[in-house]
Amino acid sequence: MLVDSHCHLDFEAFHGRIPEILATMAAAGVSHALCVSVTLDGFPRVLALAEEHANLFASAGVHPDYPEAPAVTPEEIAALAEHPKVVAIGETGLDYYRLTGDLEWQRERFRSHIRAARLARKPLIVHTRAAAADTIRIMREEGAGEARGVMHCFTETREVAEAAIDLGFYVSFSGIVTFRNAAPLREIAARIPLDRLLVETDSPYLAPVPHRGKTNQPAFVRHVAEALAPIRGVGFEEIAAATTSNFFRLFEAARVNV
Asked: Which residues contact 62 (CB under 8 A, 6 or more apart)?
């Protein structure tokens, strides 16, 4: 059994395809998936998927790539997380790759999400790109370790991974780990403690080899796990068992819905 710890099944690429996507998941041995919110406008669609399908869960949050999104308070985000199918806060974090200029609004939004996670007592899903130093600094300043969470779609350095793990966070690898030019990332993946490892697709993005260039989907998380097994010198079943156990240990609210 595998779990896709991060996907976006509410996106247009999957409209009208959910029964097919779920059937393909089942055939691939992927039992559950976490559908991650990127805007509060889109949150009702994410929640509806989780409410309609027992093996899907939801998160509540605003991605750092949406400068037009209105400011949200920790209390507003935490209130959304009261729903039993909402198992996490996010996706939140910092992204200095796509946006430039004064990004203080991003940092303030990130702080609000960390505070919301502490209020809701649910873990954070953290996105960081070209902003690792500020991401870790703010996590420390805001007590993110109290909430715990996951560094999703990890592509940073070993030092960043270790800093996150020290805060009680997990590290999640996507299809990027299968890419030919990702040897440095595979070296990091080999050293993450097994009890802090997660796998994801970030569907519809980043389809792993042998599907690179196609629309990604939760079933393809199997290829991520299959790639991690030889990297870590263990069998596929050990990776599958560990990452599934880790998912339900981190996202405690998911366990009561299984």
From this structure: 37, 38, 39, 40, 69, 72, 92, 109, 113
pTM: 0.97
Domains, the chain, ranges and CATH?
2-206+220-255 (3.20.20.140)
Residue 151 CA to residue 84 CA, distance in Å, equals: 23
For residue 251, give the nearest of 128, 86, 118, 136 by alpha carbon.
86
Contact between 42 and 91 under an 8 Å Cβ cutoff? The reply is no
User: Side chain identity at 249, as an amino acid letter?
Assistant: R
Cα 230 from chain centre: 23
Overall average pLDDT of the 229-237 stretch: 98
> What's the CA gap between 208 and 77, in Å, rounded?
32
Cα separation of the two ends of the chain: 13
- Tell me which DSSP letter residue 178 carries: G
Nearest Cα to Cα of residue 221 among 258, 169, 176: 176
Per-residue model confidence as pLDDT tens digits over 166-186: 999 999 999 999 999 999 999
d(CA 167, CA 257): 27
Q: What is the pLDDT of residues 88-132, one digit of tens each?
A: 999 999 999 988 889 999 999 999 999 999 999 999 999 999 999
For residue 149, give every residue at least 6 positions away whose Cβ sits within 8 Å of its Cβ, in sequence order, or none.
88, 89, 90, 117, 123, 124, 125, 126, 168, 169, 170, 250
Give me the helices (H) in 57-103, please.
74-80
By C-alpha distance, which of 257, 135, 154 is closest to 199?
154
Q: How far apart, in whole angstroms, are the C-alpha atoms of residue 150 and residue 126?
A: 6
